[in-house]
Structure formats: structure tokens, C-alpha cells
Amino acid sequence: MTTSLTLSNGRRMPQLGLGVYLVSDPAVCESSVTSALGAGYRLVDTAFAYRNERAVGRGIRASGVPSEEVFLTTKLWPSDYGYDKARSAIAGSLERLDCGHIDLLLQHQPVGDVLGAWRAMEEAVDAGTVRAIGVSNFRVDDLEKLLPKARITPTVDQVELHPHWQQPELLPYLGRHGIVAEAWYPLGHGSAKLLNEPPVVVAASAHGKSAVQVILRWHVQRGFVAIPKSTDPAHIAANIDVFDFELTEAEMAGIDALGKDKPMFRMPRWLMSAVMPLARPRPLP
Fold this sequence. Notes:
Oligomer: single chain
Radius of gyration: 18 Å
CATH superfamily of one domain: NADP-dependent oxidoreductase domain
Helix content: 40-55%
Number of strands: 10
């Protein structure tokens, strides 16, 4: 079982979960969720844009794990921002997931009527259908626009985050505002360069673990939430097998020193604006 963090609203969020980005085959998505919950995961992350919310809901129900024990995250796409559209979109996600509630609802990208959608999200928290709200891919300047107008401060910002991209500007800002950093691409999209970095390889050898497990353990010890994606039951089980060892201060420092000056994935603002109105949005992390 995974460790968890306390969000600013007092709710607990597991530190490791299953991401289902680009898992488009409904049967594969459902079986991956079921495998993950059977392996001890209690966090599943999906989004409207991934087109697999129904499969995620089926996977949770098929697992036999009570929905109250699963921390379920989904995201609103910018074409559903604005107060009225967001209210309808939240109801749609609740219907497709069919789990009774959403534990964490995120805004997927910082474009469009963010404030109108945020007001609808806050009302969903008031109604109890959504238990926590947050954002994804928001930078400091995006948060600076939202926070002064928000009645409920975001609990989470889900962003690209891994040893090669440690968000040097964003992380201190999140810390000052009590916002948890959640990592997509926690393994650098499986980057061979990252997995073969000497500090990672040496730590893996010292602990009898894989490079992947060392990097996920680094996320845990840094106080992040990470959502590695896999559809292979063996890999799913291995990814959560990181709670029987601890990286030393020297090992953590060695991995901390791997930070580069830019992310691996960058979506230009003009492209976000271009895809925002699409009826069938292009899936993005």
C-alpha cells in the first residue's frame, strides 16, 4: 500500500497512483485499473480528454475495492470551461465514472474561462459531489491570476515533474501556498537517459531495485504525488513496490542534482488555444 499526503482541505491523497493517459482501448483501461487496485494502488487519474472515464469506473467496480477507498481524479477540458459548461461537464464525468463522487477534479489546461469553471468546481465541492479541486499544467503566472479570485485554493497542481525537470520556479510557489505537486511524466516518459543516470543506477544497485523504482521512490521522498502509466500487470505491480526501502540523503542529493533547465514536453500557448474549442479534444497529459 502507498503512503499518502494530507491536502490543504484535510483529505488524504495517495502518493503513487495509476495514470491512464492514452489508454484508449476500453478493455485494456478497465483491466489496468483492476490490476492496479489489486496490487495495492488507491489512486487512479483520468480525464475527460482521455476518453476512458467509463472504463476507469468499470475497472474500479470490477476490482471489488470499495469506491470510498479509491482516490479518483479526473479533469475538465477547456472547451468545458465557463460556469454553465463546467457544471454540465462535472455532471457528465460523474455519470461516466459512476462512482458516486470525484475525489479530485482538476482544470486540465490554463486557457479559456478558468474563473467561471472554478466557480462551478467550488459549488461542486459545496454539494459534496467533488471532494477536492485543483489544476493541471498551471504555471506561477496562471496561479497568480486564479488565487486572488478563488474562494477555495487549489489543493494540487499536476505538472510534468521528474529528476530532469524539477520545476525550479513552480515548486517553491506551490509550497508557499500549500499546494501539492503531482507529477505526470514522473519517469521522464521512460527516458533512457534519465534511467541510466549514474546516481540512479548506483542507488538501484545498492537497494536491489530498478531504476524506475528508485525514481518513483525519489518522488515519494520529495513529497510529490506521482502517477506512472502502465498497462502491464507486472510493471504496474513493480511501480508501487517502493515502500520497503529508503534513499539515503546522499542518494537523494545525487538525484536532485540531475535537474535540467527545461521540460521534456512543452505545449505552446497558441496550440492550447487552437485545440480548446474542439468537440473531441486531443488528449494531453
